[in-house]
Write a structure and sequence with these properties.
By secondary structure, the protein is an all-alpha fold. The protein has 14 helices and no strands. The longest helix has 30 residues. Bound molecules: zinc ion. Zinc ion binds next to helix 12.
């Protein structure tokens, strides 16, 4: 992925040229997050054509009006917010057309949140993903998962910790500063958060007196709850290739000349790219970090 940096030259680059130059980055972002947006739209509207239109609109709007998002970690929820507004618009158009309210599926209010969690699970390294699915969806113990996946128990525990930590919104930095002992082992805390009674007497005594461990366990337990709710909607659907074709066609369409005296060119597309580039780098670091961490920690 080419680095996206802001330079004085960029400030006068027409949006059309800029779009062409950085389309690869934008396409990477689209590839990464379009299943989240498309699945949300499809589940909300129930029609492929409408879901494709919403997905197309969301990414074009993201391209044009990204001033609201500076924090790359907020990108998925920001995309869902745009999608939610577009879905509402499609519903109202449909209601006006058919003259009656469109039925909203139960649990719809939390669909976006659940899909963001599902997307986090889907972005885990494959083996960790299988382990976390078996724990959250099928309720298997770490021993059962180890037997099913033919992996050492310690490896499974670490996969579960990695997965739950991602759902908690944790980062590799936290892992680096965690010292065990005196603190309880993070992998053991993850297994405990899943409801397994594997904690040693020593760990129980430490947990009762350590706020840091107790907080981490609480957060993992909340992640288990969120993950179990989200796992039922965990199948993310990739939109058909025609959605990206429509977006690319729009990017290549001639842009209107700025009016005389309009000094501010539209720079939001670049802002969006800077944000998605950082978010993509973070996603890659998380996955690579997870794999390296797992390799380092896996029992021999
Ligand atoms: Zn502790």
């Amino acid at each position: 992925m080419p680095p996206v940096t802001e330079t004085a030259d960029d400030a006068v680059t027409p949006v059309r040229d800029f779009a062409t130059a950085h389309e690869a980055t934008f396409e990477s972002a689209y590839t990464r997050w379009s299943p989240l947006v498309y699945t949300f739209a499809l589940r909300s509207l129930g029609r492929v054509a409408d879901a494709e239109d919403v997905t197309c609109d969301v990414f074009l709007e993201g391209w044009r009006d990204a001033d609201a998002v500076d924090d790359p970690s907020a990108l998925p929820s920001w995309l869902i917010d745009i999608a939610r507004a577009r879905v509402e618009h499609f519903r109202s158009v449909r209601e006006a057309h058919q003259g009656m309210p469109v039925e909203v599926p139960p649990g719809d209010a939390f669909l976006g949140d659940h899909l963001i969690v599902a997307d986090q699970i889907a972005s885990l390294e494959p083996e960790a993903q299988r382990a976390i699915r078996l724990a959250l969806a099928d309720g298997l113990s770490h021993q059962q998962i180890a037997a099913r996946l033919r992996l050492p128990r310690g490896t499974v525990k670490h996969h579960l910790q990695t997965g739950l930590d991602r759902l908690r919104g944790g980062n590799a930095e936290d892992d680096a500063t965690w010292v065990s002992p005196p603190h309880a082992d993070r992998d053991e805390l993850a297994v405990k958060a899943l409801g397994e009674p594997t904690f040693s007497k020593l760990d129980r005594a430490h947990l009762a007196s350590c706020e840091q461990c107790a907080t981490y366990l609480r957060e993992l337990t909340a992640a288990v709850k969120e993950g179990r709710r989200a796992i039922s909607v965990s199948i993310l659907v990739r939109p058909s290739a025609r959605v990206w074709d429509a977006i690319a066609a729009e990017l290549h369409a001639p842009q209107p000349e700025p009016a005389a005296g309009d000094k501010a060119p539209r720079m939001s597309g670049r802002r969006f790219l800077v944000t998605v580039a950082i978010a993509l780098v973070i996603a890659i670091i998380i996955v690579v970090g997870g794999i390296l961490g797992w390799n380092a920690l896996a029992p021999q």
